[in-house]
Amino acid sequence: MAVTNAELLKQHPLLARLSLEQVLRFAQAGELELFHPGENIVVEGTLGDALYLILSGAATVHIGSVDNRPLAMLKPGEFFGEMSLVEPAVRSATVRASDVTEVFRVPHYALSNLLEDDPVVLHLVLVTVIRVLSKRLRDTNGLVGSVEKLSEWLASSMI
Fold this sequence. Notes:
4 helices, 10 strands
């Protein structure tokens, strides 16, 4: 028996608190997409008009074309493109499949309609997104603090 989109989506942390009916509506708003290793899922500088949920595989996040080292690794249960919840805007990074990666893509207009129609879904999804963004910010602040400490140590050791 094939697993339905709704069954796959219900397992994703972003949607875990939604009812089955709400997940079914979410499933109708988007589509599954499959990417192979090295294939770009989204490209920096292009219009960011969709939210992506990673269902399987893994993807790397890259900024700028000079250095090809990944800035972050995204795994099943994570998402990106969350700024499309607010409005379509230019993407700040490229996300590239590092394994065979299955994502669920929800276009901005469909997501916007879904969230407008159901305030409970809006609340549950936004609270989860805010928690994830808050963790990402704390992690980034930790990295910046570590770089500052390293810089100070290097400067003092050269004196």
